Each structure stands twice: as structure tokens, then as C-alpha cells.
Amino acid sequence: MSYAPAGTKGEIRGFMSFFGLHLITCGLYQTFWWFKVAGEINTFLGQERMNAGKLLGLTSLTCGIYMIMWQFGEGKKILAEVQQKAGLPVNVPFLLGPWPLQQALNKVWESVPG
Predict the structure, then answer these.
(1) CB atoms < 10 A from the CB of 108, how many?
(2) Which of 2, 59, 111, 112 could form a disulfide with 67 if both were Cys (CB 3.0 to 4.6 A apart)?
(3) Residue-wise pLDDT tens for the chain (114 aa)?
(4) In contact, 42 and 4? CB cutoff 8 Å
(5) Which of 81, 76, 108, 106 is nearest to 92 (CA)?
């Protein structure tokens, strides 16, 4: 898979669109969101650091346990890399669920020119 030049920022998403689309689609938007965010992060870093298919597949197989492990381990490392690359201080939320991750990414995308 090829990526755009490293540093390309992702989409800023607001609370109402994030949760509104989640509610309207009975949760299907969240699956789409994970794939979009993984692509944005990978493009920004210039390498594949986040694999949404693996994340969602293993989460389903382990009844949610893998997602919890990812949020406290690999997810925090990936977000810290994104923040460092943007020149921001590393400030990773304790609970790195979908909305806290999007909020942190919004701050990164707002700080990146272009």
C-alpha cells in the first residue's frame, strides 16, 4: 500500500457528527471510522502503524479484550508518535477509546499546516 508524503493531515471530526453518525447507523459508522483513522494515521506517519482490520477482527474474536489491550498499549504508542511528529507535546489520554482518540487527533490535525 502506498501513502501520500508523510505529514499529510487527517480529517477533523466534531462530537455531533461523530456520535450522530454512530447513532444513525446503529454503530456501523464506528467500523468505517476505524478504517478512516487508521489510514489517516498511516499516511501522516508515512508507514503502516495501525491496521484497522486486525484491530477489529481480533477484537471480535476476543470479545473486546484485544481492543482494551490495544488502547492501553499499542494505541498509546501510535498516538504518541503522531503527536511527536506534529511537534506537539505527548499527551495521550488514559482511556484511549474512539472519542478520546479522535479528540487527540483533532488537536494534531489542527496544528498541521495545509
Answers:
(1) 22
(2) 59
(3) 444 456 688 999 999 989 999 999 999 999 999 999 999 999 999 999 999 999 999 999 999 999 999 999 999 999 999 999 999 999 999 999 999 999 999 999 999 987
(4) no
(5) 76
How many other CB atoms sit within 10 Å of the CB of residue 27? Answer: 10
- Of 107, 98, 113, 109, the closest CA to residue 17 belongs to 98
Measured from the Cβ of residue 10, the count of other Cβ atoms closer than 10 Å reads: 20
> Of 114, 88, 113, whose CA–CA distance to 104 is shortest?
88
Which pTM does this prediction carry?
0.90
E-assigned strands of the chain? Answer: none
CA distance 47 to 43: 7
Those residues with Cβ within 8 angstroms of residue 59's Cβ, 6 or more apart along the chain or in another chain: 65, 66, 67, 70
Q: Residue 102, SS3?
A: helix
**What cell numbers appear for 25 in the block?**
447507523
